[in-house]
Design a protein that fits this description.
Layout lengths: L2 H14 L2 H12 L4 H12 L4 E4 L6 H11 L4 E5 L6 H5 E6 L4 E6 L6 E5 L6 H13 L1 E4 L2 E4 L5 E6 L12 H4 L4 E4 L5 H13 L11 H13 L4 H15 L13 E3 L3 H17 L7 H12 L4 E2 L1 H5 L4 H11 L4
Parallel strand pairs: 1-8, 1-9, 2-5, 5-8
Antiparallel strand pairs: 3-4, 6-7, 10-11
Helix pairs in contact: 2-4, 3-11, 9-11, 10-11, 11-12, 12-14
């Protein structure tokens, strides 16, 4: 790609991404701290991916996605996943109308721009797979009719890591459908004091719609145009291949720790998330730092650990850190 093209592209992306600042400001009115979570939501939104959020209760997971949907002026739906939930409760069903003497379609809550699947690991596999299929296909079949889901369509699923009783962990193959898995930690002490003050005095800012859903769809087109050099492509595939065949990258000690590495979806998600990250940083091209910034969230749930790794308390994050420190940076 010519230097002039890059300069033009860079200039164009600087202009096109100006709404990011407005959107961030709007979200920061309500959400204190949790910068990484809001950034991840933006990456998911801009790269048409879904997000799995893990964190203890009370860390503003629900608040974050409701705030984003208000700021983008999109339709929001919150579905509380429970053991007795049925796929029809999620997707919709056929209802017989006695007046018209025919079956009518009643669409489920999934027909929204922003869907919060709260505590997804509380529902059985049937409901989980109904959601994951809708996420992948971007359409839902009710009876013998197929309906496209609205655009943009972003699913944020939360899971609570504390309880194991009465939960149905998502199968590894299904978790792969989430572009990012974000783990949220507690706020810092000064942030918590701010949260405390806001809640006690009940002074909550109102969130205004600052972006239209069609602006997001347009921005997605631009994000795909962010320049990805061949060297960066090789860096992405090196990272993913190192998670499958660590010995080829002189990381023999990781070989007994990894049950399976990242799938081709990992490579695609790394590239798209890095493009979205560059866009958020208002740059028209991807640099290795962008890959490193999104690698943990993209790969965390895509690397399977062996019993040996678990016995030694080695996590997928330890493996990703080792890979990032070893694989040659272009």
């Amino acid at each position: 790609m010519m230097q002039t093209d890059i300069r033009e592209l860079n200039e164009r992306i600087r202009l096109e991404s100006s709404f990011i600042d407005v959107l961030s400001l709007e979200m920061n009115k309500v959400i204190v701290g949790q910068k990484h979570m809001t950034e991840s939501l933006m990456i998911g939104l801009l790269s048409n991916g879904h997000i799995l959020l893990e964190g203890v209760p009370g860390l503003a997971k629900t608040l974050a996605i409701t705030t984003l949907s208000k700021a983008v002026d999109g339709k929001f739906a919150r579905i509380q996943f429970t053991p007795d939930l049925l796929p029809a409760d999620l997707l919709g069903t056929m209802i017989y109308s006695q007046k018209k003497e025919e079956f009518q379609i009643k669409k489920g809550p999934i027909f929204a721009n922003f869907v919060l699947a709260d505590e997804i690991n509380r529902s059985p596999a049937k409901v989980q797979s109904a959601l994951l299929e809708a996420m992948q296909e971007r359409q839902v079949t009710i009876g013998d009719e197929t309906f496209p889901l609205p655009l943009p369509f972003l699913v944020m699923a939360t899971q609570n890591p504390i309880e194991q009783e009465g939960t149905y962990p998502l199968p590894e193959a299904q978790v792969d459908r989430f572009m990012l898995k974000v783990v949220i930690n507690y706020p810092k002490q000064e942030e918590e004091m701010q949260i405390l003050r806001q809640n006690i005095s009940n002074t909550f800012e109102t969130v205004n719609a600052v972006v239209k859903p069609e602006d997001i769809i347009k921005a997605r087109e631009v994000v795909r145009e962010v320049y990805l050099d061949e060297k960066i492509e090789k860096y992405i595939t090196d990272i993913v291949f190192a998670s499958r065949y660590p010995a080829k990258f002189k990381m023999e000690k990781l070989e007994p720790m990894i049950a399976f590495g990242g799938s081709p979806r990992a490579s695609i998600s790394l590239a798209l998330a890095a493009k979205a990250y560059a866009f958020i940083k208002r740059r028209g091209y991807v640099v290795p730092e962008d890959i490193r910034a999104v690698a943990h969230d993209v790969l965390r749930h895509r690397i399977g650990l062996t019993y040996e790794a678990e016995a030694e308390n080695i996590t997928s994050i330890d493996i990703i850190n080792e890979i990032l420190n070893t694989v040659e940076v272009p």
